[in-house]
Amino acid sequence: SLMTIVGSIIKMEITSKNLTTYDVCSIFLGTSTLFAWVGVLRYLGYFQKYNVLILTMRGALPKVLRFCCCAGMIYLGYMFCGWIVLGPYHSKFVKLSAVAECLFSLINGDDMFATFAEIQEKSNLLWLFSRIYLYSFISLFIYMILSLFIALITDTYETIKKCQRNGFPQTDLHSFMTACSVTPDFSRYASVKTWQY
Hints:
Blueprint: H1 2-15, H2 23-39, H3 41-44, H4 48-86, H5 96-107, H6 112-117, H7 124-166, H8 172-179
């Protein structure tokens, strides 16, 4: 809400020609719109059929974050290695940000042939290293890391679906309450008068 208010104020200032930078306004308004639509998920949580997505995201998030930290270390290693070794010979490895974008596109299967074909054959050793580097990165990330990432989410989804069919496991409080043989006696509080409007 605060981002919407700030973005709207900046937009009014742009309309009245007091400000000319639309970039900050668009960032505030665009981000607030994103948050508003993500906030709609909260209301879908009341329906059991739609609740599966929300429960899966909530349940898988800790595992996915831990997995991303580990996979991120491998990704950073490949990123720095490519920048240092291939940077002088390949246009996609000149800047660190370009290396990150190139490797991310390779994970998704984009621009593979162009990346392989563009390496300059200055030396046979460098050409061989580039092939080993690219093949090992693509194989590791597409076949192993992405598959494990999907498996983490799928496992959480299957657990949620099984709990919805068979019932969720009892919490410690519910277990204690079912094990307790003494029922509370509220009769002594029946004579206490409550506040009347």
